[in-house]
Design goal:
The protein has 2 domains: about 290 residues, Transposase Inhibitor Protein From Tn5, Chain A, domain 1 (Alpha-Beta Complex), CATH 3.90.350; about 60 residues, no CATH class. About 40% of the residues lie in helices and about 20% in strands. A hairpin with a 5-residue loop joins strand 8 and strand 9. It is built from 13 helices and 11 strands. The N and C termini lie close together (about 5 Å). It is an alpha+beta fold. Strands 1, 2, 3, 4, 5, 6, 7, 8, 9, 10 and 11 form an 11-stranded mixed sheet that branches. This is Transposase.
Length: about 425
């Protein structure tokens, strides 16, 4: 029932009050106790969720993206909150930050793991300080140890500029990577070659081993809102071409504007510029979409101060996120097809993306939610047609069960019990 409420939830208001009203509970405090006092552990639920993903993937390779999420929080009572850079606002604010790993396979993004960033000033007894790149590297190692077939890791410049704590760790694991880097990224060349730094604009340097840039190539980038924009890409070669390659991407090849020009470092064998554009498109499209999807499910809408409770809340969001993913037939071949009768709804979304599936699940939940919202009025002013008609409609809607094969066949499927 908690997951059902989360799929329907919109941001705003105390989370337990919003969900309680939606699912027809008289007392919202029980939901708060479900987080703060129940004996279940977030780690256990995470393991079950990841086992489901592994079973669905069936040895398919995935890309793993590492990104941090920052959310504003007032006061100092909440664990690990301090004034720090908050990505959602693009500036320093009082807030809480987590490092997240999410997967990409067959056009579908799905949640994997997260770790809280613990600022030095807010460490508790027994805590050990780890930088965000260190946390990101831990996430990749843990996923690989679990059995995920990670073909490639993508990350932004915070991780791309951390060689010893992130980039080298990923490389030692034998995993390809494509990470953003800063424009002044330093390059160590083999003995006998001179070192240079990447610069925007004209990159030619008159030395024995000059930095050179190939010609610009155009490619189409699919934004998170599904609009296409033209981008330009070229390879930058410092010294002799090596396994690690450097690329410059911009929106305007003539002016190369600072605010819309990026540098990418890759370690992918036999990589061509067209492939770099495709890889970059995935990250540029998926990253904002992943954040927006978590926000749709109330990632930051908790009213909790203890991190153990916050961790449980975030894990429930991850479970709700995955539940939506499971309705995509490309990602989850075991999902049953939707009966034509449901698709006759005038607002039914025929798209194949995550947001399309979420919209349809919200439509499925509407009769249940609506009945709970008007039930108290029906107790004041009885209307037999509504009192009997809504349950009949809900019974019909309850026949919608595209995940029945998943539930019946897998002992590991525990999401419905959450």
């Amino acid at each position: 029932m908690t997951l059902k409420g989360k799929v329907f939830q919109r941001s705003g208001g105390a989370w337990h009050c919003v969900i309680a009203k939606a699912v027809g509970l008289d007392n919202a405090q029980g939901l708060h106790h479900f987080i703060s006092q129940s004996p279940w552990q977030a780690e256990d639920l995470e393991k079950r969720r990841l086992k489901i993903i592994l079973a669905i993937l069936e040895e398919r390779e995935i890309m793993v993206m590492i990104d941090e999420t920052g959310d504003q929080k007032k006061g100092k009572k909440t664990d690990y909150v301090k004034r720090q850079y908050i990505g959602n606002f693009g500036k320093i604010e009082n807030g809480i930050v987590s490092v997240n790993a999410y997967g990409y396979c067959e056009g579908m993004t799905f949640p994997l793991k997260f770790k809280i960033f613990k600022p030095k000033e807010r460490l508790k007894e027994g805590d050990k300080y780890r930088t965000k790149p260190e946390l990101g590297a831990e996430l990749v190692k843990e996923l690989k140890e679990m059995g995920f077939k990670i073909k490639r890791v993508l990350a932004d410049s915070l991780y791309g500029e951390s060689d010893s704590n992130f980039v080298s760790v990923v490389g030692e694991l034998g995993i390809e990577y494509a990470v953003a880097i800063r424009s002044n990224h330093g390059v160590w060349l083999p003995k006998g070659q001179k070192a240079h730094r990447l610069r925007r604009g004209v990159l030619g340097v008159k030395t024995e081993q000059a930095v050179r840039a190939n010609k610009w190539r155009a490619f189409q980038e699919l934004r998170w809102d599904r609009k296409e924009e033209t981008r330009y890409i070229r390879e930058i070669i410092s010294g002799k071409r090596r396994t690690i390659q450097y690329w410059q991407i911009t929106t305007d090849k003539e002016t190369v504007p600072d605010d819309s020009t990026w540098f990418v470092m890759t370690k992918i064998p036999n990589l061509k510029y067209k492939e770099v554009g495709a890889i970059y498109k995935v990250r540029a499209y998926v990253e904002p979409g992943f954040r927006n999807s978590k926000n749709e499910l109330g990632w930051a809408d908790f009213r909790l101060t203890n991190y153990a409770d916050i961790q449980q809340w975030w894990e429930l969001v991850m479970c709700a996120y995955l539940m939506v993913c499971l309705h995509n037939i490309t990602f989850n071949p075991s999902v049953a097809s939707v009966d034509d009768s449901y698709q006759q709804h005038s607002l039914w979304d025929s798209g194949k993306g995550w947001k399309n599936a979420l919209n349809n699940l919200q439509l499925i939940l509407q009769p249940f939610i609506s009945f709970n919202l008007i039930l108290r009025w029906l107790q004041v002013f009885p209307v037999p047609q509504l009192s009997f008609g809504f349950p009949r409609l809900i019974t019909k809607i309850n026949e919608f069960d595209c995940l029945k094969y998943l539930v019946y066949c897998w002992d590991e499927f525990y999401l419905s019990s959450a």
